[in-house]
């Protein structure tokens, strides 16, 4: 299956109209606007400690009921709008499941946008290209026909105009991330090679850019593009023809005040590193694509049946455990986070790993997936907040 990155990816162009999924409601902490007093000492959230909670991107109707698609960590108090939309009848099947969301900080200073998958195709044989274009005009049942852009070209030609044309301060390739993407692409496309359809090569690329918007705000952009190139024999010319399938699975933008860039990128890196895709949702989406091959033929009842079947196979006992363990796609998320930096890895007693905002000496977790960070050696949330917090050990 094509990976559903965080944001995935994820995944991630048009805005979703689905219901929002706010952050998990905070549990009672015993603190008020003046903070929590313990042994004569007052501890204040945001100053002495930071609480990170999971926000959840919801697919409200794809399977006949609201289903969680992905989740990731943001500071407590952030809100999340958007979700997953099924665009039944969309001419490009790869874009039929659209994930679009916006997360905002309570003070409005930070805004993080995840954009849907964008897919397009190309052929370097003029006759084949002309045939593709004629088919698109006649039937309208195809992905966009565009040159085989890499990530930097895609950002300049298509993504920046979508954002309103901000100024690019700098842009750089993320080579290490590109290598991780290539390994994933090789695994996901092994079936294509096994089919003997021709020589398949993979050309993934990823970029990080810093932006300046007309309103004076700054921004950090991350974008990845996967190219699958199939070399086929051209019987007319006697040579070979390259057929290109291109897809941007990961597009994420954080906007912030220029003087708070470091803080913004730490939050962004933590969100990426902590992202978890619901495996039941991911498998159910895959079944829609592979079992039918044409999204426009899927009625809601069929999708609902696929969801029930997939959920039963995974089992209720595992529905939350996927958040606490490293899935196969997490290596990609880790590479994206490392493209920004600003995160530290922590481990719990069971060996589970999580990447959280860098710069803190102490970290704790709760069974509900909430995390707390602090640099105050006197602060213990088990005592100060009267809650079940478990200490984490910083990785090496």
What does this 3D model show about the protein?
- It is a single chain.
- The chain is an alpha+beta fold.
- It has one domain (36-313).
- 26% of the residues lie in helices and 33% in strands.
- It is built from nine helices and 21 strands.
- The strands form four sheets. Strands 5, 6, 7, 8, 9, 10, 11, 12, 13 and 14 form a ten-stranded mixed beta sheet that branches. Strands 15-4-3-19-18-20 form a six-stranded antiparallel beta sheet. Strands 17-16-21 form a three-stranded antiparallel beta sheet.
- Strand 16 (343-347) and strand 17 (353-357) form a beta hairpin.
- The longest helix is centred in the C-terminal third of the chain and has 15 residues, at 300-314.
- The relative contact order is 0.17.
Oligomer: single chain
Q: Tally the beta strands.
A: 21
The helix tally amounts to 9
Name the shape in a single word.
Answer: elongated
Question: What key phrases describe this protein's structure?
Answer:
alpha+beta; disordered N terminus; single chain; 21 strands; 396 residues; 33% strand; 10-stranded mixed β-sheet; 6-stranded antiparallel β-sheet; 9 helices
Short description:
The chain is α+β, with helices and mostly antiparallel strands. The chain has helices spanning 126-139, 151-162, 175-188, 190-194, 261-273, 279-292, 300-314, 330-340, 381-384, and strands at residues 36-38, 41-43, 49-59, 67-75, 79-86, 97-104, 111-114, 118-123, 144-145, 167-173, 199-202, 205-212, 218-233, 240-256, 276-277, 343-347, 353-357, 362-365, 371-374, 390-391, 393-394.
């Amino acid at each position: 299956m094509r990976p559903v990155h965080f944001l995935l990816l994820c995944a991630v162009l048009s805005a979703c109209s689905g219901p929002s999924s706010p952050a998990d409601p905070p549990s009672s902490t015993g603190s008020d606007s003046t903070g929590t007093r313990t042994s004569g000492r007052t501890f204040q959230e945001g100053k002495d400690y930071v609480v990170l909670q999971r926000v959840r991107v919801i697919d409200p109707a794809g399977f006949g009921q609201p289903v969680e698609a992905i989740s990731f960590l943001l500071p407590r108090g952030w809100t999340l709008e958007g979700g997953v939309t099924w665009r039944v009848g969309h001419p490009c099947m790869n874009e039929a499941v659209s994930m679009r969301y916006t997360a905002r900080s309570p003070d409005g200073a930070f805004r993080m946008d995840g954009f849907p998958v964008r897919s397009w195709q190309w052929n370097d044989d003029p006759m084949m290209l002309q045939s593709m274009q004629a088919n698109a005009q006649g039937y309208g049942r195809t992905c966009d026909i565009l040159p085989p852009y890499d990530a930097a070209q895609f950002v300049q030609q298509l993504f920046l105009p979508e954002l309103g044309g901000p100024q690019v301060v700098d842009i750089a390739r993320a080579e290490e991330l590109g290598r991780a993407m290539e390994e994933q692409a090789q695994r996901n496309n092994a079936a294509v090679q096994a089919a003997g359809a021709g020589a398949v090569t993979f050309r993934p690329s990823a970029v990080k850019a810093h932006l300046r918007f007309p309103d004076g705000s700054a921004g950090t952009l991350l974008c990845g593009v996967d190219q699958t190139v199939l070399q086929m024999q051209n019987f007319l010319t006697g040579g070979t023809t390259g057929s290109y399938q291109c897809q941007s699975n990961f597009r994420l933008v954080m906007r912030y005040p220029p003087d708070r860039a470091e803080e913004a990128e730490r939050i962004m890196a933590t969100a990426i590193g902590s992202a978890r895709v619901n495996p039941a949702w991911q498998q159910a989406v895959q079944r829609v694509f592979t079992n039918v091959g044409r999204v426009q033929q899927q009625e809601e009842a069929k999708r609902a049946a696929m969801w029930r079947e997939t959920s039963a196979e995974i089992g209720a006992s595992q529905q939350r455990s996927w958040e606490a363990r490293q899935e196969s796609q997490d290596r990609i998320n880790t590479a994206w986070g490392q493209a920004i930096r600003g995160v530290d890895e922590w481990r719990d007693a069971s060996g589970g790993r999580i990447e959280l905002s860098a710069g803190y000496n102490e970290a704790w977790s709760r069974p509900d997936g909430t995390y707390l960070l602090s640099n105050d050696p006197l602060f213990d949330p088990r005592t100060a907040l009267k809650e079940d917090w478990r200490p984490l050990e910083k990785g090496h």
